[in-house]
């Protein structure tokens, strides 16, 4: 074809399988061994656009060598890994997978659903309301990845469970269900294989009773689940790394027993939990590096739950002072307390500190000598009423 004809043909070639292109892609796929084919199919159907580390975690106990398999797929140009460690697969390869599988999963029992390993559904694309049977997943014993997600600009609830939900497969490793429409999880749901649990904007009031086998759980997000009043028992979630409870507006307290064993927890985000009054003070989470409590407007006491913290946000809380024990936080780099109207006094900070934001607080005087800023190893910036001070640099 001429150059002009190729230019006109490009949009179609980018988005639809041409016969010759399809044959080339099929040869690439057929050349993979069975384990690498499985990793390829998982990425095409479920994990395109996800972080590499997350995919490795989710596939870890499926007898799949995910790390080597992903390298094989990169070498064959079947996926690309961006500089920021996200997996990217071309839309033509995803179309090829749909053709290879040729499966249309229905949300009702039967229809060959016994072979289904994963379901991923963008609920924002559903035009009409969908009603799901309470036994919808009973004939999916091998289901390991269930993701029902939506665009959060879309407020409409699309999936309904009029009779509740009696069953979820015990092999589930990923459970992501935005706007989950009922008050509780199935009473007999086994969580021992679950790696990720995401139930944002859910109607949940309680997740489970008692102590559950949660040793595989690494990620948990219940953000904007406004009916939840307390954290479920996480005594055995000893491998949990990230816990997001943003905008859980009815959560009042966090019992020590709920989080004291979370020695691998790196991120705790409870921002905008507007009824939260305190956090336990008799624990020291060894791995916690990020604590976000911004917007917890009833929080009056300073939450020193880890001396290993690096980044802390307490903006728009009701805290009145920073305790002298803050000096024990030898890794603390950034402290954000903007909008803390009750904050009047600043004590000395650890020498690791680089940024303190006390803009729009009740602090009137900063006693630089008392804060021992001259001993800090790195340039220090203090944000105060929209002005920045760098005492070491001036």
Please state roughly what percent of the residues sit in beta strands, choosing from under 5%, 5-15%, 15-25%, 25-35%, 35-45% or over 45%.
Answer: 5-15%
How many helices does DSSP assign?
A: 7
Shape: globular
How many E strands? 17
- How far apart are the termini? 67 Å
Domain Disease resistance protein Roq1-like winged-helix: 34-97
InterPro entries: Disease_R_plants (IPR044974), Leu-rich_rpt_3 (IPR011713), LRR_dom_sf (IPR032675), WH_DNA-bd_sf (IPR036390), WHD_ROQ1-like (IPR058192)
Protein name: Disease resistance protein At4g11170
Organism: Camelina sativa
Structure description:
- This protein is of the alpha/beta class.
- It has a domain of 97 residues: Arc Repressor Mutant, subunit A, CATH 1.10.10.
- Helices cover 18% and strands 13% of the residues.
- It is built from seven helices and 17 strands.
- The strands form three sheets. A 13-stranded mixed beta sheet has the order 3-5-7-8-9-10-11-12-13-14-15-16-17, with helices on one face. A two-stranded antiparallel sheet has the order 1-2. A two-stranded parallel sheet has the order 4-6.
- Strand 16 and strand 17 form a beta hairpin.
- Helix 3 packs across helix 5.
- The longest helix is centred in the first third of the chain and has 14 residues.
- It is globular, with a radius of gyration of 25 Å.
- It starts with a helix and ends in a 5-residue tail after the last strand.
- About 2% of the residues have low confidence.
């Amino acid at each position: 074809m001429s150059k002009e004809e190729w230019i006109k043909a490009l949009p179609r070639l980018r988005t639809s399988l041409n016969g010759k292109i399809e044959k080339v892609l099929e040869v690439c796929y057929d050349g993979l061994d069975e384990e690498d084919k499985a990793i390829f199919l998982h990425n095409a159907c479920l994990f395109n656009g996800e972080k590499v580390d997350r995919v490795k975690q989710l596939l870890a106990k499926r007898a799949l060598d995910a790390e080597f398999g992903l390298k094989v797929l990169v070498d064959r140009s079947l996926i690309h890994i961006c500089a920021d460690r996200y997996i990217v697969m071309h839309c033509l390869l995803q179309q090829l997978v749909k053709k290879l599988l040729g499966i249309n999963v229905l949300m009702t029992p039967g229809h060959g659903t016994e072979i289904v390993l994963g379901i991923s559904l963008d609920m924002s694309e559903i035009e009409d309301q969908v009603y799901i049977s309470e036994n919808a997943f009973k004939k999916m014993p091998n289901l390991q990845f269930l993701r029902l997600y939506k665009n959060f600009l879309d407020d409409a609830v699309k999936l309904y469970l009029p009779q509740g939900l009696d069953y979820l497969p015990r092999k589930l490793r990923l459970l992501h269900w935005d706007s989950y429409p009922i008050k509780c999880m199935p009473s007999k749901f086994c969580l021992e294989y679950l790696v990720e649990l995401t139930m944002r904007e859910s109607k949940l009031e309680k997740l489970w009773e008692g102590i559950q086998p949660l040793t595989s759980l690494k990620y948990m997000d219940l953000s904007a689940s406004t009916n939840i009043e307390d954290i479920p028992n996480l005594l055995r979630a000893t491998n949990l790394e990230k816990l997001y409870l943003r905008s859980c507006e009815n959560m009042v307290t966090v019992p020590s027993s709920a989080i004291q064993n979370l020695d691998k927890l790196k991120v705790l985000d409870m921002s905008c939990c507007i009824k939260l009054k305190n956090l336990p003070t008799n624990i020291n989470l060894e791995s916690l590096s990020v604590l976000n409590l911004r917007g917890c407007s009833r929080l009056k006491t300073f939450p020193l739950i880890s001396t290993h913290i690096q980044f802390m946000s307490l903006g728009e809380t009701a805290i009145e002072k920073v305790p002298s024990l803050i000096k024990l936080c030898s890794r603390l780099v950034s402290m954000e307390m903007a909008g803390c109207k009750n904050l009047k006094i600043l004590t000395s900070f650890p020498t690791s500190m680089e940024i303190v934001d006390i803009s729009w607080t009740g602090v009137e005087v900063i006693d630089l000598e008392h804060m021992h800023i001259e001993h800090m190893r790195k340039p220090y910036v203090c944000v105060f009423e929209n002005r920045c001070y760098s005492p070491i640099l001036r």
